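Hi everyone, sorry if this is the wrong subforum. Our group has a chain we'd like a structural model of before ordering constructs, and none of us has done structure prediction before. Sequence below.
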Amino acid sequence: MPFACRLLEFAASPAALEIQEIPSTPPGSGEVILHMLAASVNPADINVIEGTYGELPDLPATIGNEGYGIISQIGPNVNGLTIGTPVIVLKSGAWTTEMRVSAGEVVPLPQGIDPWQAAMLSVNPATAWRMLHDFTDLQSGDWIVQNAANSAVGRAVIQLAHALGFRTLNVVRRPELGDELRAIGADLVVLEDVDLRLEALRLCGGSLPRLALNAVGGSSALNIANALAPGSPHVTYGAMGRQPLKIPNGLLIFKNISFCGFWLRRWREGASLQEIHDTYHVLSEFILSGVLKTPVHRIFPLTQVLEAVNEASLAGRSGKVLLDLGSCKTH
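Answer:
Right subforum, don't worry. Here is the predicted structure as tokens:
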């Protein structure tokens, strides 16, 4: 029997999670069965457990918003997929050893891709890639400013921007992160207390950033907004600081800064299947070539999911917490 991590109620504690045996069912028309091997523990997963995320499942529910597996069975009326193909899944419920999904909810990956990197591919790198492409037409040499630069999305932005010829001004809270981020391609790393309204022009050699990426909110979001060139977008994709955005009138009137939001799920809903596959194809090639690499903090077996969620909730980690789904024994 397969196993799944089920959320029984929304609660502040991961004790609301329970590992349960689930029935194994054959794939229906247009469906495939995935043998799941790895999944990430993201802040969004923790927010779902707490009941604070933007969209919540009906309970009880198998959670986990990204994961990697291999196609083990194929139902009727499925074209272009073969047994043994490595895939990422574009549907929640990845904290399980077996997953039944529509063929349109998986994206094939190249053989030989690192399974742990693949398990972290579908959310943060894709968020970084879309934000770099969907809000303004960046040119080689252009600057991007971002806070939470040491987050998983922030690190992906640094690596992808470096590969694309863009330059990054990265805001962090801890000085020891500077060397670490510069090693993966960051051009500039500054602390939160640097007033970018006064310093951005000097720091960026006379060229103000043309894109701001905000994952914090509050004064940090305003600080990076003040760094922007006139007419540039300021994109919010997270709220780690749990403080609202307070936008001065002058940024709207005199600098014509546009304030936008980004949520990967909404992008997927509006994108064509070809656009989705193209995005993940490019990102998987970056992983294979070594351009894109997400650090791993610790890997837990599915049976230790409570410990994994607690670990992922801790501040100061240098990488992602993952679940090893392949180590969970079935009957």
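For your construct planning: The chain has two domains: 3-120+294-324, 124-264. The two ends are 5 Å apart (CA to CA).
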